[in-house]
Known about the structure:
This protein is an alpha/beta fold. The protein has two domains: about 1-60, no CATH class; about 60-255, Rossmann fold (3-Layer(aba) Sandwich), CATH 3.40.50. The protein contains ten helices and eight strands. The strands form two sheets. Strands 1, 2, 3, 4, 7 and 8 form a six-stranded parallel beta sheet that branches. Helix 6 crosses helix 8 and helix 9 (about 200-205) runs parallel beside helix 10 (about 230-245). The structure holds zinc ion (2 copies). One zinc ion binds next to helix 3.
Amino acid sequence: MIKGLRLLSTLLTPKVNSKERIQTALQGIRDLLPAGGGHCVACLAPDARYGLCNPCRQDLPVNRWHCRCCALPLAFAGNETLCGQCLQAPPPFSRVIAPWRYRFPVDGMIQRYKYNGQRAFARPLINDLADHLIATLDTTPELRPDLLLASPMHPARRRKRGFNQAADIAEQISKRSGIPWTTELVTRNRHTHPQRGLNREQRLANLRGIYDVTGTPPPRIAIVDDVVTTGATARSLAEVLLGAGATDVQIWALARTPG
Ligand SMILES: [Zn+2]
Ligand SMILES: [Zn+2]
């Protein structure tokens, strides 16, 4: 059972103590393993798949009931339902696939990955997302996109953070699914204020005109990101891609926030 996410970070923090250093090195090696094995990142149980044991995996908040277009979590059963926002203003993308809800412990796992570069926390989520996508494409091959596009990050923010988590996720989904990926097709032409803390209208205004398409998009694209929040980024990106000739844009992400 997941009680907290502190255990692994104590292993990952470099300490003068040599035992700690060895454990850190071992964890680094485990992170490089492509699949299976390793200890659970949440409870350190030895029998883990992609770094998460089964009991901890069962504690993850699955986004079971959701809007069939934007994957907004719904409080009631029915995945053929559209949320109020999608009914009122149909989004330019065709669907969002996001297997988890952005709440404990998925929120903490993604934050450690994104802001602290602790990839071990994202490994089970990314691989489980890949499993889910591969199973979905097996039953509905018409959903298969021609290209995965990592949600673009402004170069200044990328330098500050050290990596673009969306590119990292896209690369791993590409390896597992065989669908090519890129970061090149769309650029972010200016730095925006962080989206956190802004409401939906403010986010849309914040993003207006910030994306340039630099090539010819293939017909079918899946934009890959870590979290879909209000969907403002997804809407802006999908709009520019459709404007440049794409015919179908999906969003693939690890998690969806409740609103
Ligand atoms: Zn566990
Ligand atoms: Zn919706």
